[in-house]
Amino acid sequence: MKDRAEGQPDISLFAAGENKGDGECEGSILRPEEAYRNWEEGKDGISTLFKTRDPACADEMRKAILWFYQLLFWSNGQEVDLTDRQKRVEWLELKPHNVVDRLSFIEQNPRLAHSFLQLQELFAEQWKRYAKDRAMKSIKKSSE
Questions:
Q1: What is the DSSP letter of 14?
Q2: What counts of helices (H) and strands (E) characterise the chain?
Q3: In Å, what is the CA distance from 85 to each residue of 31, 44, 114, 134?
Q4: pLDDT tens, position by position, 103-123
Q5: pLDDT > 50? residue 27
C-alpha cells in the first residue's frame, strides 16, 4: 500500500484508463452496478463493526469510500481518477449535493458513525440519480 495521509483512501487501487466517452475505458468496462453491489454486500459488516466499536471499521470505511468513488465516476461514464479528486468530482454531471464537502468529512473521519451514515446517504442519492439518468436516456432513445 502506498504512503497516504491518515483517513485518505488508497488511490493506488484504481488504474487510470483512457476514457472512450461511451462508458468504456481501454482495458475495462465501467459498471456502476458492481460498485453499488459491493456496497450492498459490505455495508452490514461495516455497520456491525461500528456497533461493536471495532477499530477495523476505519479500514472497511476506506474500502467503502473507494466503492463510492467507483459508483460516482462510473455512473458518469468516467474512469476513476482521484488525482486532484475534488476538482474532478466538481465537474461530474451526476452527483449528490455537496458531495465534495461530504466526502471530505467522511475521509477525514472514517471512524465516526456519522461518517458511515453520511456515506449510506451518498450511495443512495447517487444510485437514484444514476437510475433516473438511465431511465431518461432510455425514454429518449425509444422516442427517436
A1: S
A2: 5, 2
A3: 20, 27, 22, 24
A4: 999 999 999 999 999 999 999
A5: no
